[in-house]
Amino acid sequence: MRITIIGTGYVGLVSGTCFAEGGHTVICVDKDAGKIKMLQAGGMPIYEPGLEELVQKNVGAGRLCFSASTKEGVEKSDVIFIAVPTPPLPGGAVDLSFIEGVSREIAGEMREYKIVVDKSTVPVKTGEKVVETITRYCKAKVDFDVVSNPEFLREGFAVEDFMNPDRVVIGVMSARPVLAMKEIYAPYNAPVIVTDINSAELIKHAANSFLAMKISFINAVSVICELSGANVQEVAQGMGMDARIGRRFLDASLGFGGSCFPKDLSAFIRITETLGYPFGLLKEVQKINAEQMDRFVKKVSDTLWVLKGKTIGVLGLAFKQNTDDVRMSPAIELCQRLQQEGARLRVHDPQAMEKAKALLPEATYVANMDEVAEGCEALIIATEWPQFKKLDLDRARKSLMHPIIFDGRNLFNPEEMERLGFLYKSIGRGKA
Ligand code: NAD
């Protein structure tokens, strides 16, 4: 198939590249001409494991190219995917201006039948608005279909997830585009759910809200564990071995963040309110998440007392492991809160330091994770990068002014850390 992706960000670049890997001919379009130039010159605007190699391979094979022109993308392809941002507005509603703008742009260039597929995460009924917009702005009055095809990839595992999806959701208004959509996804060997557009849109918001709920659930359990002296990791293991529950998304932490969960949860809450069924449970999920961060900051300030003028080391800035994405990162929020209290920060992240600099311009960026602790009052682990488990603990203990570690990701064993001479405070394992 000839495919164009409009919006070459985390979702667009991964989807386009993986479609090319599946044998399709793909044009990735972005309005950011600098990004397109960088990609055309062989550079990578984002870090995602395995992506760079796959881009190079498919560009080399002539199946993948980049363009700053929506006109070119629409003219040369049969199926146009929309993968532009859908950021939150103040109050939690979704800013759909990018979707509306791209719908108009596509409509203006359509001269023959096209399938327009929304991959961005959007509120239920957005597909209907896209149909109205294209109908209104299409000069040539040609036929088209609009499809909803929400994306479920996880940053940090995006290529793996895209190539091996649990399921592919295809929301349609008629049977006409189904065959083409199935052909596009045939190389990935996944179960395909064909449904109506509204259901497809709802699947995405309901799924992300459910996952956020699972995280908040275990975080609330972690508080109960601290109050009762139990161990949240063992509780999670015992719960998760029940096949009805499952172990994934049951890791107690600083709370969830990133560019999807907080915004999709707020959006879903707003959608349910607008539809006349305020989903109170989801407000509690948000509240637990906010409180989890408050509790962690309090743990630090209760231990170190006054933070003003104190230097603290922080390992991890990305919102999770394996990514350079710092959008809505709990690690960044934590750093900002510590800075508001007057702390000075020495920080390290394996991939996210460049992107973090805009949000934390005053921090000291340390290239080697083992050097972060030098001269610090305490060390904080804020992102679950697997390499942090290999931290030179002996060196950290000697480098720190006091051997104190706050672990927001439960990477170490509390008994072992105590044996090594640390005051070690983690999440939901024994007394806070
Ligand atoms: P992103 O910010 O990384 O990328 C979006 C890209 O769209 C940017 O490069 C931007 O320049 C471009 N763009 C904006 N307007 C454009 C226009 N008119 N024409 C061409 N390009 C345009 O965003 P993302 O993280 O890829 O998210 C995109 C959508 O996918 C969002 O709705 C998001 O909620 C959803 N989603 C994201 C993830 C994720 O893990 N990031 C996962 C599933 C779904």
Core attributes:
16 helices; Rossmann fold; binds nicotinamide-adenine-dinucleotide; 2 domains; single chain; alpha/beta; six-stranded parallel β-sheet; 432 residues
Query: pLDDT average, as an integer?
Result: 97
Helix share, percent: 40-55%
Overall spatial form: globular
What's the CATH H-level homologous superfamily of the largest domain?
Answer: NAD(P)-binding Rossmann-like Domain
The profile of the biggest β sheet is: 6 strands, parallel
Task: Predict the CATH topology of the largest domain.
Answer: Rossmann fold
How many helices?
A: 16
Compute the gyration radius: what is it?
A: 23 Å
Secondary-structure blueprint of this entry?
Layout: E1 2-6, H1 10-21, E2 25-29, H2 33-40, H3 51-60, E3 64-67, H4 70-76, E4 79-82, H5 97-109, E5 114-118, H6 126-137, E6 144-148, H7 158-163, E7 168-172, H8 178-185, E8 192-196, H9 197-228, H10 232-240, H11 261-274, H12 280-304, E9 311-315, H13 330-340, E10 344-348, H14 353-356, E11 364-365, E12 378-381, H15 393-399, E13 404-407, H16 414-419, E14 423-425
Parallel strand pairs: 1-2, 1-4, 2-3, 4-5, 5-6, 7-8, 9-10, 9-12, 10-11, 12-13, 13-14
Helix pairs in contact: 1-3, 4-5, 5-6, 9-11, 9-12, 11-12
The protein binds nicotinamide-adenine-dinucleotide.
Please give a quick description of this structure.
This protein has 16 helices and 14 strands. By secondary structure, it is of the alpha/beta class.
Overview of this protein structure:
- There is one protein chain.
- This protein has about 425 residues and is of the alpha/beta class.
- It folds into two domains: about 190 residues, NAD(P)-binding Rossmann-like Domain (Rossmann fold), CATH 3.40.50.720; about 220 residues, NAD(P)-binding Rossmann-like Domain (Rossmann fold, 3-Layer(aba) Sandwich), CATH 3.40.50.720.
- The protein is built from 16 helices and 14 strands.
- The strands form three sheets. Strands 3-2-1-4-5-6 form a six-stranded parallel β-sheet, with helices on both faces. A six-stranded parallel β-sheet has the order 11-10-9-12-13-14. A two-stranded parallel sheet has the order 7-8.
- β5, α6 and β6 form a beta-alpha-beta unit.
- α9 packs across α11.
- The longest helix is centred in the middle third of the chain and has 32 residues.
- The protein is globular.
- The structure holds nicotinamide-adenine-dinucleotide.
